Write the structure tokens for this entry.
Amino acid sequence: MSASAAAFRRPSNWKEQAPEPLPGTLTFASQSSLPKLPVPKLEDTLGRFKESLKPIAWTEEEFKAAAQKVDEFGAGKGKELHERLLKHDQGTKHWLENWWDDGAYLGYRDSVRLSDATCHENFQLRAPRSLSMSPTTVHGFDVPTPGKYASPAERAAGIARAAMIFRQKLKQGLIKPEGTKDAPMCMDTYRWMFDCCRIPGPEGLDWSVSYAKPGDLGDSGHIIVIRKNRVWKIDACKDGKILSTADFTRQLQHIYDNSAQEYPGVGVLTASNRDVWAKDFIELTSSPVNAEILKDIHSSAFVISLEDSEPNDPIHHSRALWHGDIKDGVPVGLRNRWVDKPVQFVVFDNAYAGIMGEHSVMDGTPTARMCDDILDWLDAPTFDHGAPLTSSETVPVPLDWDVSPATSQAIARADVAARELAESQDLTYHLTSYGKDAIKQFGVSPDSWAQMIIQLAYRRLIGSEKRNGGTYEAATTRRFFKGRTEAIRVVSSESDAWVASMDDSKISAEERKALFDAATKKHITLAKAAGQGQGVDRHLFGMKKLLRDGEEMPAVFTDPVVARSSYWILSTSAVFSKHFPVYGWGEVVPDGFGVAYMTGFNDRLQYTITSRKEMPNARFIEEIAKAAEDIYELHAEITKAKSKL
């Protein structure tokens, strides 16, 4: 390794840089009482594991062979690895945290743009192609009504002030903590929302750097704004007060007014393969000017990207957020971003807006909650836009890169890679004609209903072909200290039985309904277990991590059914905000689909499907639409029949 690369080695204590949450405050009141993430009983995990393999196996013989390997593992090496895991757990606050940070996120070297790793890692940690497994999700904000904003600067300004207020409240511990009716949720990863950034590691492992200070009350700080690829710095506070919306509007308008020309698209480097970006990062920082700009970006509260695209439909809105526009073969959107930031707002010239967030050390749910809060505040007539604090003499500071010939060449290469990635992707979108109100009237969990739509649609899509992988749904484990996610293995024997019944003319509606009820009941059981830390994948991952050099890989980990079961053909997850008309991420395997959905609207379900262009994406969304109607009609038929009795 060169001396320059050695200077960028990851600090062993990098995660300690973000100050610990304030104890005893409203936001973090429950942190000290949260239980540790449990290590499940070995026999429980292996029982669930075998059950999940049955619908994945292509033949009974294949299943029996896999099941035998699971049993042999449980009676042999598995016991030893489980005991090692229990011992490891005793010496940590969270037995999975460090392994998960690196194995699921920071060790992946493909682009952190266009896809998502929040919920798609497994105990095999299969290497992804470019465009897969990267921890970035996008959420589109409410479509602006005509005349609501006088300019895009005005919308960006409101977002900037509201986000700074959220940051201030968070630092002071005044944000209401998240939780369910049963338990509070861990708020630890909120430490990695503001004032921080991911760093590309030249030794194959990235890390995040935080500039947050212990005791900071959120009454200082700056934001970074990018327009036409030029970086600008705005001091977001003055004399201990957050700038008013009018202050932000004036300074943002100054940026618009002084951005007639394009500047070097350095931001596109952040969308490259991580090893490529690490080399380019070292070259970039060799200039003292650039090193200071990078520090300003990394330490900024957040980034706002001002883009000249004008999306006006859900597909364009989604893609403009996901990877930005491609113009004349140039990825103008990604040139104007810094995709390593956990919070990056994007505002388009027609005042459409959204957020793009890198969340390797902070899952997407805290970001969604932050957006929900700030958009609620901005919608309220009582929102405090503040009194002006600055004069016209206070203007943003442009930060212009020192672009060497090597960096110019790197930008050209990154442009090509980014364009090819973006152009390789397909995206479709569907809203059903009914929502959670109708589903609940039928007495069904909206999430289970939505998942059954996906299962039925996919089987119809592939017809009689054998299933090449499983379905992943993310379950949060934030009821535990530093909990993040667990995999819900959605495919079950019960769901397969119901799916088969829907296109079997010999099976009555009553029988189909009974099979549907069994499938959704099973899904709820699996989801609850995963949320309680009683899944399959994280436990197996932990045991595999404790294999020592020279020890033989247990046969169970190389079994084809086992491999297939964690090859996530369908990577699915749901969040909800009434402010998100679009959201999503990319597929995680080349022949798979990313399925982002929402079940929280009263009058509609929302699906966004992503895939490579060679996949039958358009057919899949058509099958989603048909499956949604068929399930509704099944329940309506049963309800009507009961009403006549």
Summary: Residues 116-134 have pLDDT under 50 and may be disordered. The longest strand covers residues 425-431. The CA atoms of residues 202 and 279 lie 7 Å apart.
